[in-house]
Write a structure and sequence with these properties.
The chain is of the alpha+beta class and 812 residues long. The protein is built from 22 helices and 38 strands. The strands form ten sheets. It has a seven-stranded mixed beta sheet with strand order 26-29-30-34-33-32-31. It has a five-stranded antiparallel beta sheet with strand order 5-4-3-6-9. The chain has a five-stranded mixed beta sheet with strand order 11-14-17-18-19. It starts with a strand and ends with a strand. The model has no long low-confidence stretch (mean pLDDT 90).
């Protein structure tokens, strides 16, 4: 937002320069980003009168002017302008001037005649050209004949002004208006503001309620809708003073009616819209949600199709405008307009922001609605607009205001004491000073006695709801410079990481050591990703928490599955020709207890990884082998071993986005702690890629922590040799090697040290539906060398158990 110093001085007197005022406001939490001088480049441009003008002796189109610029001696200036005459008063750029158009004025000779300056056109001094004649536009800018001579042109044209450009935070919606800034200046300077006296005369016999009907279909998106009707409207240019004020606010003048709505928006902070009454179908306006596919034809002459859910102002036939963003083209104000409906409403900020972002259209009005406006001042804004147009003689005002306000809200009451304020700020500010500061901010305070007070939050201050908010107001007006710096008090605790954080660090370290890269992403997801990943229709992963104010319409929900963002990262790499991918992500997922959300959701920290492409970096010494299932499985095995989770059972498993038959699960007891496999072909097609990918996903960090070894156990190196036996078994093709290995471990007794599958064979010699599994068994005792007889006992028990449980036969 930006506003001129002169506009501020219309409502309050102050002696500070623009720069001093900007410093005061910034220190009080109303940051001024820039101070823009309207007279920049006009410092050496003054008014001058043409006392004499003669033709240049060596030119058929140039003239020699003797100029009176208020100095002792006249100046001689050569010009080629054809619209200058003796007695004209014009802007004169003196030697040394650096004009806004970029021209630098120096002494020169034109066809042998010395010229000590330049006569300026409107374009050369960059002034508003509205209302200028064709001669003034194309030639030298001719001023009124009675204009004083030798005066700075900025002063004569009202450009001796400065503009404050604010960079306001979202919580200070009240400062998105001249009145809001004036209120701050009054509190900082102690000067009394001069609020505009808003009075309107309803001088037309017609009744507004008989002419237009107003309704709200969706009160959750539109809390108040007010309107006035203006008749006998005369469309024309706005007065110069209003054009100047709007220009200082960065708004282009259009016509008196449109300019007044913009003026009131900047002055009071209430966005408004004007409709051509005769173009409103059915003479009714309703605030409602748009229907999907409904056409929206806006003032920028663009047609858009509604996605459904956007708030629109509709007449009896169509949407007449995008509420809070831009009006409709069919009902815009034109030169033929004679009756106007003025609208002032309060719309739900997040809805306006979503609509604005989705269509890529931001306006001064939408910015104010997004931050929140004062719902109580819609009628005041209507009266102000009607008053301004009435003062111009541009309309008559119909009887009454139409106001739909279904659910007025009470303002928050904040209890506090001076002791609480001082304790929080580390100050000793008297209660009287605290009350004075609050009164200067128009915050009503009730004295409850005994040092207890209640502050009633003003309707325009939605950011005041707690005692802490009151203390912030006291601190910024009292001045942070007046608050003595003190060190915080409190016991110093030794900082340490939680077990969860330590485990995450260990996992990250291990995976990075295996050549993987960690990715980070926002915890948001698009609902379509569930379909692309083949998530079952009844899965809890589809119960996503919608975000009220999403950063993007592409990510409207909170993430329930970490694979969604991980696959998006992989696809982004593929699109940029990076096809050798080894990435993982550790991030939160969220599961609501119920929808809509009434309590905090369950949050879990999940881990997943994806690999694709070559096994080794491209090099002439290495082959171009591609990664496969066993690379992903090896990563998981190494990871589990590194974090102390051992003796897992590995079995064939299932996962919604993995290839059936190429999926394995790691189990501790009956609990699956990791799943690994090749990505399902259908998922690859859904994601728009043909490149094979292998992924792993682990259970949440809390569950992993349950199985990690808390303390390392150290044993001495063995003194005695191990006894090794090979066990080759023929079993049915559908028997899991993992189950057999588990049985071997269980039956092997206390001396069995390790079991390792070293061969898998299938062939005609075994018969159809059969396979051979060969295990290496290692037996060892800590106190002696085992005898063959001792090992035979354990070995025979193993053979008997696998034969009984799996029908296994010793392979000969």
């Amino acid at each position: 937002m930006q506003v001129s110093i002169k506009w501020l001085k219309d409502y309050i007197d102050f002696t500070e320069t623009a720069e001093e005022l900007a410093e005061k406001l910034t220190r009080a939490g109303v940051p001024v980003e820039n101070v823009i001088r309207a007279d920049k480049g006009l410092e050496k441009v003054v008014t001058g009168r043409v006392d004499e003008i003669v033709r240049h002796p060596d030119s058929d189109h140039m003239f020699i002017c003797t100029m009176n610029v208020g100095e002792d001696k006249p100046l001689t200036i050569v010009t080629g302008a054809q619209n200058v005459h003796q007695g004209d008063v014009v802007p004169v750029a003196l030697v040394g001037a650096d004009l806004p158009c970029g021209k630098k004025i120096a002494k020169s000779k034109l066809r042998g005649v010395a010229s000590a300056g330049m006569l300026c056109s409107a374009d050369e001094i960059k002034i508003d050209t509205t209302g200028l004649t064709e001669a003034q536009l194309n030639g030298i800018y001719i001023l009124d004949a009675d204009t004083p001579i030798g005066r700075p042109i900025a002063e004569v044209l009202g450009l001796d002004d400065a503009v404050l450009e604010f960079e306001l935070t979202a919580n200070r919606a009240d400062c998105f208006s001249v009145i809001g800034i004036v209120r701050e200046i009054a509190a900082l300077t102690g000067n009394q503001p001069k609020w505009p006296d808003i009075k309107v005369t309803e001088d037309d016999a017609a009744k507004a309620a008989d002419m237009i009907k107003i309704a709200i279909d969706d009160p959750d998106l539109c809390s108040r809708f007010s309107a006035r009707v203006l008749k006998n409207v005369k469309i024309g240019p706005s007065p110069a003073w209003m054009r100047t004020r709007l220009e200082g606010a960065g708004i282009r003048s259009i016509s008196n009616v449109v300019d007044v709505t913009n003026f009131v928006m900047v002055e009071l902070g209430q966005p408004m819209h004007a409709y051509d009454y005769d173009e409103i179908a059915g003479q009714s306006l309703t605030a409602r949600r748009a229907n999907a596919g409904e056409e929206l034809h806006t003032l920028d002459d663009s047609s858009r199709l509604a996605k459904g859910g956007e708030l629109v102002i509709a007449d009896a036939v169509k949407a007449a405008g995008l509420a809070g963003v831009m009006g409709g083209l069919e009902t815009e104000i034109t030169e033929k307009t004679t009756t106007v409906v003025l609208e002032a409403a309060s719309f739900f900020g997040p809805s306006i922001r979503r609509t604005s972002r989705s269509i890529g259209l931001h306006s001064e009005a939408s910015g104010r609605f997004e931050r929140g406006i004062d719902v109580e001042h819609t009628i005041r804004a209507l009266d102000r607009a009607a008053q301004l147009l009435q003062d111009m003689g541009a309309c008559t005002v119909a009887q009454g205001v139409i106001d739909v306000y279904p659910a007025p809200k009470e303002q928050p009451v904040v209890p506090f004491t001076a002791e609480q304020i001082n304790k929080r700020l580390g100050t000793d500010i008297p209660a009287e000073e605290i009350l004075r500061i609050l009164a200067s901010l128009d915050i009503e305070v009730k004295d409850l006695g005994g040092g207890n007070y209640e502050a009633v939050s003003p309707t325009w201050r939605k950011d005041i709801a707690l005692m802490e908010d009151i203390s912030e107001e006291i601190a910024r007006i009292y001045s942070y410079d007046n608050i003595r710096a003190t060190l915080p008090r409190g016991g110093v605790m030794l900082a340490r990481q939680s077990e969860d954080q330590n485990l995450v660090d260990k996992i990250t370290e291990t995976l990075v050591a295996q050549g993987m890269l960690e990715t980070r992403s926002f915890s948001f997801q698009h609902p379509d990703m569930c379909d692309k990943l083949n998530v079952p229709a009844d899965s809890i992963l589809r119960t996503m928490i919608p975000i009220m104010n999403p950063l993007s319409d592409d990510y409207p929900n909170v993430r329930t599955c970490i694979l969604t963002t991980l696959f998006e990262t992989v696809l982004r790499n593929f699109a940029r020709k990076n096809e050798d991918v080894r990435v993982f992500e550790i991030g939160p997922v969220f599961f609501p207890k119920a929808l809509p959300v009434t309590e905090l959701p369950d949050q879990k920290l999940k881990l997943a990884g994806v690999i694709s492409g070559r096994r080794y970096p491209q090099n002439w010494t290495d082959s171009n082998e591609m990664v496969d299932f066993y690379d992903a499985k090896g990563i998981v095995e190494s990871l589990l071993d590194a974090i102390g989770i051992r003796d897992c059972a590995v079995e064939a498993g299932e996962h919604f986005c993995l290839h059936p038959g190429k999926t394995a699960v790691f189990k501790k007891g009956r609990e699956v702690i990791a799943t690994v496999g090749e990505v399902h072909p259908q998922v690859m097609e859904n994601l728009g890629t043909k490149k094979k990918m292998y992924m792993f996903v682990l259970t949440d960090i809390k569950t992993l922590l349950k199985y990690t070894g808390k303390k390392a156990k150290f044993t001495q190196l063995p003194k005695y040799p191990a006894v090794e036996r090979d066990l080759a078994l023929t079993v049915a093709d559908d028997v899991s090697a993992g189950l057999i290995a588990r049985t071997i471990t269980k039956q092997g007794g206390k001396y069995l040290q390790s079991v390792n599958l070293f061969d898998l064979y299938t062939g005609k010699q075994l018969g159809e539906g059969k396979k051979s599994l060969a295990f290496s068994l290692k037996f060892r005792a800590a106190d002696r060398t085992l005898t063959d007889e001792e090992v035979d006992v354990a070995f025979n028990a193993i053979v008997e158990a696998v034969a009984k449980n799996f029908g296994a036969e010793l392979r000969k």
